[in-house]
UniProtKB/TrEMBL annotation:
Species whose genome carries this gene: Pelomonas dachongensis
InterPro entries linked to this entry: DUF4861
Protein name in the entry: DUF4861 family protein
Classification lineage: Bacteria, Pseudomonadati, Pseudomonadota, Betaproteobacteria, Burkholderiales
Superkingdom, taxonomy of origin: Bacteria
């Protein structure tokens, strides 16, 4: 049965997993940070070819990187931002948090999966610290997870927030990047994985906040101007060419552009 669901998975090193009838994602928690230091706060994307939740079962298989008929995880996050992780851009570098430090599940279906995480303070340069609270919301029937972030700081000056897409999530080859700064849009269509095909990933931000679009060694980045303590909203999305929805880059990009999204904080 199609549902939007979220689960904390202490049995898989504190993963937080969420999915609906179209997409599946996870972020990494405190246990994994200890098991596989330094771990990271990038956002993972899984692929699925069923309308019902499958991530919980997939985590219990011999390897969730294999396709047993419902989907799998073949997207590589590594040290990147994955699909829409963020950091603070300062001194030509992205300063990023560790894994989430605490969590609260707000709604576990059936039509909405929503949860909130906090990230412990991390340094930006040598004399500034920031910390973040972020709320994730995924509705049934949508490819887009809504992220509302509040980044506080021990200094009042504006922050430049970089939101990223991993440049090489499938092997070492680079895919096709589409940028539309006026629409606040980054899209990447990956090269085809030898066994599993290609994925599409996307980030959409409020165009009014965009400073520029650029990159670092690991990520394509859209950079926003943000005031400490004030919420801002952005969206992440993904698709699999072997899934149930969009099979080509052109169809996926048309969908991402056309989706009606609101950036007003709640």
């Amino acid at each position: 049965m199609p549902r939007a669901v979220v689960r904390h998975a202490p049995d898989r090193a504190d993963d937080l997993i969420w999915e609906n009838d179209r997409v599946a994602h996870r972020i990494y928690g405190p246990a994994l940070q200890k098991l596989e230091p330094p771990s990271g706060s990038g956002i993972d994307a899984w692929v699925k070819k069923v309308r019902w939740p499958f991530m919980d079962r997939q985590l219990k298989t011999p390897s969730y990187h294999n396709d047993y008929g419902e989907g799998l995880d073949f997207y590589g996050v590594g040290g990147s931002r994955g699909v829409g992780g963020l950091g603070i851009w300062f001194d030509d570098k992205l300063w990023v948090s560790r894994n989430w430090a605490s969590h609260q599940i707000l709604q576990n279906g059936p039509d909405v999966a929503s949860f909130q995480v906090s990230y412990a303070p991390w340094p930006v340069g040598v004399d500034r610290r920031v910390w973040e609270t972020r709320t994730f919301t995924l509705s049934l029937g949508s490819h887009f997870t809504r992220l509302q972030s509040v980044i506080d700081s021990d200094k009042p000056e504006d922050l430049i927030v970089g939101i990223g897409l991993n440049k090489t999530p499938v092997g070492t080859a680079r895919g096709v990047l589409t940028v539309d700064a006026k629409q606040g849009l980054l899209m990447l269509w990956t090269p085809a994985h030898a066994q599993h095909g290609a994925m599409g990933t996307a980030v959409r931000v409020d165009p009014a906040q965009v400073v520029d679009v650029g990159a670092d060694a690991d990520n394509h980045l859209v950079r926003l101007r943000v005031k400490p303590g004030q919420p801002f909203v952005y969206y992440i999305a993904s698709v699999w060419e072997r899934g149930l929805d969009f099979r080509t880059r052109e169809a996926w990009e048309a969908h991402v552009r056309a989706e009606q999204l609101t950036f007003d904080p709640r």
